[in-house]
């Protein structure tokens, strides 16, 4: 018997607004389609051309007021992806990003949050909008266990997303004190190659683009980089956290939070993630039909 509830943190707050406008009513009204031991912890993302944005090049174009209203209507936390690691003091006054914090900082009963990679921005938001919970981003690339646990110990963070290279260390996760387990938000479905040496450089290149600054273009050195994200390959990654590991291993240990990447991908692939992690197999077709299957749809 499963006694804990897994909270999935889903991608595309601004990027997939139309998708969630259809998915969230389904999740509420057809709850029997979904595993009873899972829930939605948050939906995260950032608008396109967002100065404080990072991690992935943003393309979300949904109106912030609409996004905030949708999240409020379904009682789901919004996490702003403000994980630019190259911010300077002059960037803190950006009116658009401050307005987003003002909007989502007034969340009412739901605690919204901000995903961060910059200590400068962390301190600024902690002072300006203490009601926004703070999440330490995986874009910090903390691959040493000691660095990661030091990050966990920082009181300003509600969650810390570990680098996916730490995911297989079950011996370490079993030894982590229960009080710290509640602060871990695993990144489950990363497709980046496990031994990638350029992950930090990749994130910094995205941060420069968000700031509109020149710098070296990052070119992925993986042999299969041209294929883009392939879920079947991600499942073979040593850092992949599959459904069985969540349900049978990590959840009973008290690890409740799981992040699904994908805000730079398409909504079709996002649906496959949700089907895999949240939907009972016998209802996969029901969910596909409810989201966007049409009898007249011609794919080729």
Percent range for helical residues?
25-40%
| Largest sheet data | 8 strands, parallel
What order do the helices and strands follow?
EHEHEHEHEHEHHEHHHEHH
Q: Over all CA atoms, what is the radius of gyration? A: 19 Å
**Domain tally:** 1
Unreliable segments of 5+ consecutive residues: none
Remind me, CATH topology?
TIM Barrel
Structural write-up:
With 300 residues, this protein is of the alpha/beta class. It has one domain (6-291): TIM Barrel. The protein is 36% helix and 12% strand. It is built from 12 helices and 8 strands. The protein has helices at 17-29, 64-74, 95-105, 119-128, 145-152, 170-175, 178-181, 199-211, 231-234, 243-250, 267-278, 284-291; strands spanning 6-11, 38-45, 77-82, 113-116, 133-136, 159-160, 185-187, 257-259. An 8-stranded parallel β-sheet has the order 6-5-4-3-2-1-8-7. Strand 3, helix 3 (95-105) and strand 4 form a beta-alpha-beta unit. The longest helix has 13 residues, at 17-29. The chain is globular and about 50 Å long. The mean pLDDT is 89.
Please give the structural blueprint.
Layout: E1 6-11, H1 17-29, E2 38-45, H2 64-74, E3 77-82, H3 95-105, E4 113-116, H4 119-128, E5 133-136, H5 145-152, E6 159-160, H6 170-175, H7 178-181, E7 185-187, H8 199-211, H9 231-234, H10 243-250, E8 257-259, H11 267-278, H12 284-291
Parallel strand pairs: 1-2, 1-8, 2-3, 3-4, 4-5, 5-6, 7-8
């Amino acid at each position: 018997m499963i006694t804990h509830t897994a909270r999935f943190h889903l991608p595309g707050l601004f990027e997939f607004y139309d998708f969630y406008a259809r998915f969230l009513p389904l999740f509420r009204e057809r709850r029997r389609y979904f595993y009873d031991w899972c829930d939605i912890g948050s939906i995260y993302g950032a608008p396109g051309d967002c100065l404080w944005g990072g991690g992935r090049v943003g393309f979300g174009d949904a109106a912030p007021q609409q996004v905030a209203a949708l999240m409020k209507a379904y009682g789901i936390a919004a996490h702003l992806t403000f994980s630019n690691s190259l911010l300077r003091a002059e960037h803190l006054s950006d009116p658009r990003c401050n307005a987003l914090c003002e909007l989502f900082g007034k969340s009412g009963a739901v605690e919204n949050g901000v995903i961060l990679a910059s200590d400068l921005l962390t301190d600024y938001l902690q002072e300006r909008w203490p009601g926004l919970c703070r999440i330490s981003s995986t874009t910090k690339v903390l691959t040493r266990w000691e660095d990661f646990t030091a990050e966990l110990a920082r009181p300003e963070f509600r969650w810390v997303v570990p680098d996916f290279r730490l995911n297989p260390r079950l011996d370490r996760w079993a030894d982590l004190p229960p009080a710290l387990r509640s602060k871990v938000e695993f990144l489950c479905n990363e497709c980046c190659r496990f031994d990638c040496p350029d992950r930090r450089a990749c994130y910094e290149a995205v941060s420069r683009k968000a700031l509109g600054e020149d710098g070296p273009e990052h070119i992925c050195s993986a042999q299969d980089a041209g294929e883009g994200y392939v879920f079947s390959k991600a499942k073979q990654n040593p850092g992949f956290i599959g459904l069985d590991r969540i349900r049978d291993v990590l959840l009973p240990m008290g690890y409740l939070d799981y992040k699904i990447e994908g805000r730079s991908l398409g909504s079709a692939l996002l649906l496959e993630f949700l089907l895999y992690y949240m939907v009972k197999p016998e209802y996969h077709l029901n969910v596909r039909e409810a989201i966007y299957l049409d009898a007249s749809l011609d794919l080729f």
